[in-house]
Structures are given as structure tokens and as C-alpha cells.
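Quick one:
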Amino acid sequence: MALETVAPNAAGGSGIQSVTPIKVLIADDHSVLRAGLRMLLSAQSDIDVVGEAADGMEVSRQARKLQPHIVLLDLSMPGPRSGNVIRDVLRASKKTRVVVLTMHDDAAYLRSAVSAGASGYLVKKAADSELISAIRAVHAGRTFVDLTQTSGPVPILPPATVAGQSQPPKKLSRREREVLRLLAQGHSNQQIADSIRLSVKTVETYRTRLSEKLGLKGRAELYRFAAESGILEPRPSRRASGGAT
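Output:
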């Protein structure tokens, strides 16, 4: 079912422009939560809930059958491991992207989900508006990560699919790469300034320059770029900030 919106035509009048809604498959083993998510998402004019799944095996079958744009996936369902489920979904439907919605506010789970191919990750404590924003952002080809309840920085490993891209981009200076790495790890501007002995204003300037140079918007997109370019490869015994984590 397509939505229709009125848009001006070439002659300056109005015409009908067809807009395809974002097709979402909800995957969670709690029926009450699935019902609540369906109610929330169905209230959005640009989102169409096309199906539900209650275990890992069913998610893959439904993805193959329904070809959704987004699978909203809980990590703790019965069946195969969540990483295998994500990979199976992406193989079953080439146009589908996975947004993880989980109770695990933990960087280790985030790393695992991203390595398997997830494009979005947020915790169930997130606001309704954040979930809707995540679905829209991921559908638009961006990455959405929300671990705001986690204390300290979030170290991310590069996804397995791009592990071969191990060299940082040549067009970034050493200082730009350093600022990008700390931003992607979840540090605030003030924490970065304290860590590398710059003013907050200078860090903000670097952040703006990175966004302009790379054509990226927001921390989530900077994180994705840093992960895929190898800037976030783990370094043993490396301090990320002035104190212990």
C-alpha cells in the first residue's frame, strides 16, 4: 500500500507523488512488546508493519517471504544466535537492513551486532521518537547507534565485512584521525579536549571539519566511517581518557 502526497508539478501546479512506506518486520519473543511496537509504528504515516516473528528461525523465513526494508530485531530470542540471525536475514533479503532493539546497553553486544551486519542499535529504554528516528535513518542508508545509558566511552571494532580496509584514510591528518577515533568511541568534546590537550573550541572545529571533509552528519555516521576505515582497531593498553574506565 503506497501513500500519496501532493507535490508541485513542473508547471507550478499540484500533482500526486507516490511515496512507498518503510516496510518493517518486528522480531521479538514477547507478544505484548510486539503489539506495543506495532501500535507505535503503525501510527506513523511513512511506516508499514508487514509482519512479526517470535524466534530466530521465523525471522529469516519472514524476511525471505516479506522482503521488508527494516527488521527490528531483539537479540535475546529463542533459536539461533543473534549474529547468525542477522546474517541469515541479510542473505534472505538483499534490500533489508537490521535495527537491533535490545535491553543490552553494552558495547560488547553492539560490536557483535555491527560485525554481523546490523545498521542500527538502540536499547529498549530509548524514547519512542528515537526508535522512529532510527528506522528512518537506517532506511535512508545511514547508521544509528544509541548507547546513551552506558557510562564511559564505547570502543567499537570494525565490522567483519570491511575488516580488510585497515588503513586510515590518507586525506585525514593525524590529529583529525585522533579526534575522529575519540568521537566514535563516545567521548564528549570536553573529554577529547582534556585527553589530547586542546581547547573545547578547537575540538569543535575539528569535528565540523571532519563532517565537512567526509560528508557525514552526526556521531553515528562518523562512528561508521571510523569503524569501516580501521581507525577503531583495538590497541592494547591504550588509554582513551584521563582516568580509568
